[in-house]
Design a protein that fits this description.
By secondary structure, this protein is mainly alpha-helical. The protein has 18 helices and 2 strands. The protein has a two-stranded antiparallel ribbon. Strand 1 and strand 2 form a beta hairpin. Helix 4 crosses helix 15 and helix 5 runs antiparallel to helix 15.
Length: 491
């Protein structure tokens, strides 16, 4: 185990060389922020705005975007402190071990990588499904269903949840999107940074065009026309708010992407915190303005029924040709998101394998271009499989599994690490410590629990934790017996 991340040796300052000696520190602040923002924006808000409005049945759903922004700012401060102090490839793999030590930290690190086998491809698949969904605006035949199945999954002692998958003509386009992203990422990181910046221009340009259209055709009376009882503090209001927060968290997520690339960030103690906070601030401003613009230019009843909200909104004001042009830009945006997600997540199994926390094959680096090619190919293939599922189910499973197995432990862990290793060099310290970490923890618990039919997704998350824990225990026993066998053979 390299000394830089040993359980008994404090990690070095962020300015020093890390154990990621085979990786190239070639990403600066501009490229890091751009990669974060295309990861955050993606096609998510353009397919979930109708879902968001439907959760609360009116413009009051805007409160979900506002509270969601505050939640991710609190969590972003957690990531900023950890990313600056421990700037290595894989991010949370290193954080969890440093926070909780070799036993508990090793279990949590393994569980994080294990759940990533599901959640990272789910995240990428959501972008690919969104790509195919917007492509239906241009080619309606893509929506034709080939087959649909609903499979019950009985979990002993927990209950029954259901797996639903639907294969349409668009499913194959979604899978092709993953394959294209893998092909583009199969090259040196410095080139990828420039590709990411180019994709970022298209993403932000599309969003700004929608905002400009909305603001120039804005109707305050329409944007702020609330249905009767919209703000009544009923159980339905709070569960609807929980569902809205889940969607908002999904749409904002990606601000931490730069932490997965910690071993490839130039001057990480300065760049990582700034990239996180700049991307959150920029995207929050874009989201809030865009949502308000759309609600001010289109009745909320029409918004919640739309399958292609960006295209329908622009076509409503400028005509069908503009709607088609915006659809092309939506395809650009969706692909940019998949590209950035696959880039960041592919570094996590690589880092875990380097530490001995995952299968050794994932530690392999491309001999010429020096990037973790095995991890890249594996996650790309898994994402293609998850393109078979429905978008709403993919989003819910992704958020609940990720929060349950990683974010809750990490938000409390940053406090544990302050006490466990107070002398660890921290180029960036959380503002108003520990308030943001505590608020992030409580906010994530609310997202998990306060939703309609929340038990189904919670059962799935519990299943992932149980299976991951069993595999961790079996892996340790096999490793221990192997060590004992080698020792007896030497004697």
């Amino acid at each position: 185990m390299p000394a830089a991340i040993s359980d008994n040796t404090p990690p070095p300052p962020s300015s020093s060389q890390s154990s990621d000696h085979e990786l190239v520190r070639g990403i600066g602040l501009w490229h890091a922020t751009a990669l974060n923002m295309i990861d955050m924006i993606g096609v998510g808000p353009f397919v979930t705005i109708p879902l968001m409005v439907a959760t609360m049945h009116g413009p009051q759903a805007m409160v979900g975007w506002i509270l969601g922004a505050l939640l991710v700012v609190c969590d972003g401060l957690v990531w900023a402190e950890l990313g600056a102090a421990l700037p290595h490839a894989g991010g949370p793999v290193r954080y969890l071990r440093a926070m909780y030590g070799p036993r508990v930290g090793g279990w949590l690190a393994f569980l994080f990588v294990f759940q990533l086998t599901f959640s990272a491809p789910l995240s990428m698949a959501s972008g690919c499904i969104g790509f195919a969904q917007y492509a239906e605006y241009l080619w309606p035949a893509l929506h034709n269903t080939i087959t649909a199945q609903r499979i019950p999954l009985a979990i002993p002692g927990i209950g029954t949840t259901y797996l639903e998958f639907t294969i349409t003509n668009g499913t194959f386009l979604a899978m092709a999107t993953v394959a294209t992203a893998v092909a583009l990422l199969y090259r040196r990181i410095t080139i990828i940074g420039r590709v990411g910046a180019l994709l970022w221009v298209g993403v932000v340009g599309t969003t700004l065009a929608i905002i400009f259209t909305g603001l120039t055709h804005f109707s305050p009376s329409q944007a702020f026309t609330f249905p009767p009882g919209a703000w009544a503090p009923t159980h339905a209001f709070f569960t609807g708010l929980g569902a809205a927060l889940l969607i908002a968290v999904y749409d904002y997520w990606g601000y931490y992407n730069v932490c997965y690339l910690g071993g490839e960030i130039r001057d990480p103690g300065r760049v990582i915190p700034r990239a996180i906070l700049l991307s959150i601030g920029g995207v929050a401003l874009l989201y809030l303005t865009m949502n308000l613009s759309i609600l001010g230019g289109m009745p909320w009843q029409d918004v919640e029924k739309s399958r292609f909200i960006a295209s329908d909104f622009m076509a409503r004001i400028w005509g069908p040709k503009t709607g088609a042009l915006v659809t092309v830009m939506m395809l650009w945006t969706a692909f940019a998101s998949v590209f950035s997600l696959l880039l960041g997540y592919s570094r996590v199994p690589y880092a875990a394998a380097l530490e001995g926390d995952y299968f050794k094959i994932f530690a392999r680096v491309h001999p010429k271009h020096h990037f973790p090619h095995v991890s890249l190919l594996w996650l790309g293939a898994a994402a293609a499989v998850f393109c078979l599922f429905k978008l709403a189910d993919v989003v819910t499973a992704l958020v609940v599994i990720r929060i349950s197995t990683q974010f809750l432990a990490q938000t409390l862990g940053v406090i544990v690490l302050r006490r466990r290793d107070p002398d660890l060099p921290r180029p960036f310290r959380m503002w108003l410590y520990p308030i943001p970490a505590v608020l992030a923890f409580l906010g994530f618990v609310y997202v998990i629990v306060m939703r309609p039919k929340s038990l189904e997704s919670i059962r799935l998350a519990v299943l992932v934790i149980i299976v991951g824990t069993v595999l961790f225990w079996l892996r340790r026993r096999i490793a221990t017996r192997g060590s004992q066998f080698e020792a007896s053979t030497i004697r």
